Amino acid sequence: MPLDLLPAADAPELLAAPVRNAVAELDPQLSASIRVAGIDAALADTAAFCAAYGVDPAASANCIVVAGRRGEEITYAACVVLATTRADVNKTVRKLLGARKASFAPMDEAVALTGMEYGGITPLGLPAAWRVLVDSRVREVPEAVIGAGIRAAKIALPGETLCALPGVEVIDGLAAEL
Question: CB-hemisphere CA count at 13 Å for 66?
Fold first, then answer.
């Protein structure tokens, strides 16, 4: 089934509150290229979503929340990588965060800190203090599909737009091919 994409500004009900607020605050040129589509929430996980909606995994991006620890200090960051790759959390992300240890943040922590649903977390609307690390391969995707903050929707936007979002750091080698 195809995605019925609408301008994100015209379908606020398909965006989690922090995502909706972030889209509203964007430069109009950036926000104009962000579209959203409702999906079956049971199909939100990447493999099921791509199969059901005919989206190439190379055009699907995942946003993961990472917790870097150094002593008692925890630093959170979001990593955006293509579904055909895996974030290098233990080496690249850990070093970028200046952490002694880095791992995926527990689901309940990620949900509480972002105000988004697990499986729908997206780089738009994350806490301002967080680093948003995006693998450089994302820039090359004509239209990247990523969460909308809720499991029942997906955002589609050019990879260039995703990489131009406020606070995004484009990193070569953030991820490795699966």
Answer: 32
User: pLDDT at position 51, please?
Assistant: 97
Q: Domain spanning 6-169: which superfamily? A: YbaK/aminoacyl-tRNA synthetase-associated domain (3.90.960.10)
Of 165, 131, 133, 159, residue with least CA distance to 145: 159
Structure tokens at 173: 């080698």
Q: How many residues appear in the chain? A: 178
What tokens does 172 get? 């070569």
Q: What phi and psi, each to the nearest 5 degrees, are found at residue 121?
A: -60, 140
- Provide the 10 A C-beta neighbour count for residue 73: 10
Q: What residue type is assigned to position 110 of the chain?
A: A
pLDDT, tens digit, 9 for 90 and up, residues 129-141: 999 999 999 999 9
* Residue 42: Cβ within 10 Å count: 11
Contact 163, 123 (CB under 8 A): no
Query: What pTM does this model have?
Result: 0.97
- Tell me the per-residue pLDDT of 66-109, one tens digit each, with 9 for 90 and over: 999 999 999 999 999 999 999 999 999 999 999 999 999 999 99
- The amino acid present at 112, given as its one-letter code, is A
**Cβ atoms within 10 A of the Cβ of 70, count?**
14
